[in-house]
Design goal:
The protein has a domain of 194 residues. It has 8 helices and 2 strands, in the order H-H-H-H-H-H-H-E-E-H. A two-stranded antiparallel ribbon has the order 1-2. The radius of gyration is 51 Å and the shape is rod-shaped. The C terminus is likely disordered.
């Protein structure tokens, strides 16, 4: 498989599924063998039994420097080549490097107490190693400062490249300044100065720690890829639900309805009654006209033969109105004197 094919997260996941258990088994076997050989190795001539802590201290220090170098390469891949897995590797390696740096500081303090008489001194090697540990914490803080992985990856990559200047300072601090820490004993131009009975367990332990780092790195990268997939699917599902809700709301607003006012529906689907108006607050235009209950159903006929009595529409009172001339009764009968005498009326 070409190296460029590993840029595909799917192929990387398939490869990591095979390599993580393999590196874990190799790391367990080598660490057990290294510890066994370390306790079987002879004690140091000057430092005695306390020197056996170097089988944990020295590999941790090597890995702390190597992991930060790997992070710097991943930072270049993020900023320059835009490699899809570069920021994933940088984010996954940062907590592992911080853990190895902390182990280095703690084991160095335990080793320095019987040798120097103090757990901590502001030595050039110790101080630069502490700065490296703080750089790891700064990178982790930048990764957690924002939820956008692109912005967090660029900020962490810039800090990683700026802090890489501390790696050669840690390596050559014992050569540039006068320190209490011993100089390099393994990686020298003229060869290592350690006895082979001590060097072999040290190299075996360092290889076991390296295999452990690779297993942890691949597992952390796989988890980060899965986490980003879940986050992307969650955002897509939320966006789809929001768009579908807005679409249903727009269609419901544009849809004409022939329902009466009493059958309006609420968003929850329950019927809602129309607002009721009080009779006192009703509009004058729709106010019912008052009916005159005092008007008689039929007016008495006391208006005479030439008039008729009818109730008016406005007041409801009876009023006499003259009949038309053609509808009047003709006057026939006795004269007025006779009518007055007899009491008849017309």
């Amino acid at each position: 498989m070409p190296l460029f094919d590993l840029a595909n997260p799917h192929r990387f996941m398939q490869l990591a599924r095979v390599l993580v258990p393999a590196f874990a088994v190799i790391a367990a076997a080598l660490l057990a063998l290294g510890l066994y050989l370390g306790f079987r190795a002879p004690a140091d001539a000057l430092q005695g039994e306390a020197a056996r802590i170097m089988y944990v201290h020295v590999p941790s220090a090597w890995l702390a420097l190597g992991i930060y170098t790997l992070m710097a390469i991943a930072a270049l891949g993020t900023l320059v080549w835009r490699h899809p897995l570069a920021d994933v590797a940088g984010k996954a390696a940062a907590p592992i490097g911080a853990a190895f740096s902390l182990v280095t500081l703690l084991t160095g303090a335990l080793w320095g107490r019987p040798m120097w008489g103090a757990y901590w001194v502001w030595d050039a090697r110790l101080t630069s190693m502490l700065v490296l540990f703080l750089l790891y914490l700064g990178v982790l803080a930048l990764w957690r400062a924002t939820d956008d992985p692109l912005r967090a990856g660029r900020a962490a990559a810039i800090l990683t490249l700026v802090g890489f200047i501390n790696v050669p300072i840690v390596k050559f601090s014992v050569d540039w300044w006068s320190t209490l820490h011993q100089p390099a004993s393994v990686f020298r131009l003229d060869g290592p100065t350690i006895h082979p009975d001590i060097l072999l367990p040290l190299l075996v332990s360092a290889t076991g720690f390296a295999a452990l780092f690779l297993a942890l790195l691949l597992a952390a990268m796989r988890n980060e890829i899965l986490r980003r997939r879940v986050q992307t699917l969650t955002l897509l599902a939320a966006a789809g639900a929001a768009s579908s809700t807005r679409g249903r709301g727009n269609r419901r607003a544009r849809r004409p309805t022939n329902r009466p006012a009493t059958a309006r529906q609420t968003p929850a689907g329950r019927p809602r009654e129309p607002p009721r108006r009080s009779p006192a607050r009703a509009s004058p235009s729709v106010r019912p006209r008052a009916r005159h209950t005092s008007a008689p159903a039929r007016c008495p006929g006391s208006c005479g033969p030439d008039a008729r009595s009818r109730p008016t529409a406005r007041t409801g009172l009876c009023r006499c109105r003259l009949r038309p001339r053609a509808a009047r009764r003709p006057r026939t009968g006795t004269p007025c004197s006779t009518a007055a005498a007899t009491g008849r009326t017309f």
